[in-house]
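Researcher: Final request for today, and then I'll write up notes for the group meeting. The sequence and the SMILES for flavin-adenine dinucleotide follow.
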Amino acid sequence: MNTRTVFRIFKQARWKHSSLKLYDGARVAVIGGGPAGSLFSYFILALSRRAGLDLQVDIYETRDFETPGPPGCNMCGGVLYESLVQSLAVEGINLPATVVQRGIDYNMLHIGIGSVKIQTPRQEKRIATTFREVGPRGMVYLKGRRLDNYLMQSALAMGARRIFGQVDQVRWLTDPKSPEVESRLIQVKTSGGEFHGYDLLAVASGVNTAVLRLFCDLDFGFQPPQTSKLLVREYYLGQEVVSKYLGSIIHAFLLDIAGLDYGAVIPKGDYVTICLLSSHGNLEPGAMETFVDNPAVKRILPADFSMARQACNCSPGINLAGSTHPFNNRIVFVGDCCVSRLYKDGIGSAYRTAKIAACTVVFQGISADFMKHYLPFLRRMEKDNLIRKMLFKSARQIQNRHFIERAVLKMVSREQQGKANAEKGMSMLIRDMLTGGAPYIEALMLSMHPLFWTRFLWNILLAIVFRPGSKYDPNLAVHTLTSDETESHS
Ligand SMILES: Cc1cc2nc3c(=O)[nH]c(=O)nc-3n(C[C@H](O)[C@H](O)[C@H](O)COP(=O)(O)OP(=O)(O)OC[C@H]3O[C@@H](n4cnc5c(N)ncnc54)[C@H](O)[C@@H]3O)c2cc1C
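Model: Predicted protein-flavin-adenine dinucleotide complex:
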């Protein structure tokens, strides 16, 4: 064991027993004004008022959320869950209709041999979409504030200050009046600006930023989250075409394309967003062409769909695993740069980490308290993500095994027709794995239920015995938009 390690263990042991608290008039810096940064600022100000503290909260943000395209873009599919919209309303943040486009009717699952719709009767599991910022490049009209801007405005209305600029340096400043290491303050500096000292720093920078490297050098054990790159493109189709071909439906694809875990086609007003995701490493740029050329994808797009109509494209990183040691005395990480639910509900994770971190800061303290009150939540989230990895590995086994695919489609189809219980069936399992704000443990519990397995094995048996074209042919389950549905969408 080297001296450095001994020093760190000693330092951490001391750290575990100390407790620093924010005082009236304390200064808080937040790096990043995405959902996590704005919500953390909102909560810390709201809660500190209740605790009788008057805090100064500065949000450092580089982006201008009012400019369409890359300058204001936060690279996101923009799927929100009704449960999150409701939770925010309870917190006093009522997202208006210009921010949340409700009316996503259901999900459509497409696998190699066919497609089925997956609808949930439960209101809180419904889905909405949002533009995180003004919209894709070239979008000239502004119908109203978008999510990131709206959350930022909520934090500003609560009393936070916004500072335009990119934080490029972070350092400790030892309080000259105190010999205690714990008393050192933290300073941040924007490019071209000066250092400013704070009592607490919340890092909400997301994962697509170089700022995280600065914290590795502060020597408290922080390591950024492991990430993988997505391919995202936004295409302009016009409202009429979007309604006619895609409806108000989120299309999820589990296709046998090399390296691709999952693809999603999300309608948003005049636009459609296509997101491709891989956990095996970064996708080749050509993966988008391969995806759009796949017969299952072609089925839902207009015949004259052209990739030349692309309005925006990007390859942002997305979390695969959480960060290491995302807190220290006077520092706490929230949102993506801390931990996020794997492949879904990133905005919901930003909300939860922001709220729990803010509660810890105001009601407990800003040192050892993170270990006791914040870490258990982060660990639960990491464990839940491991369950997702396990479930997805099993799901990959069914790809290319057509008899299992047929059994899955048949089960979902019967459930959607009300002939079997969708709440405890394949529909809910697939839905909870691909979308929704529910933890993955719920999907695991469902998948282990004896009734679920009895029905699944029975359907596999039928799929083996009765070949395609027979009465049990699950291709009968393939669902295309009926004229009624398309009319109601337009
Ligand atoms: C392609 C894609 C699609 C997604 N789709 C969905 C979806 O449909 N639904 C969903 O719930 N989640 C989705 N997510 C995840 C979701 O976007 C994130 O989980 C969420 O944005 C996390 O919020 P955050 O505030 O932690 O980070 P971010 O949203 O990344 O915000 C971080 C902010 O910090 C700012 N910043 C960074 N560095 C600095 C610096 N040095 N100085 C000042 N400011 C800085 C950035 O400008 C940014 O505004 C998607 C992610 C990707 C990549």
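Model: Residues 231-315 form one domain. The mean pLDDT is 82.
Researcher: Thanks, that's everything.
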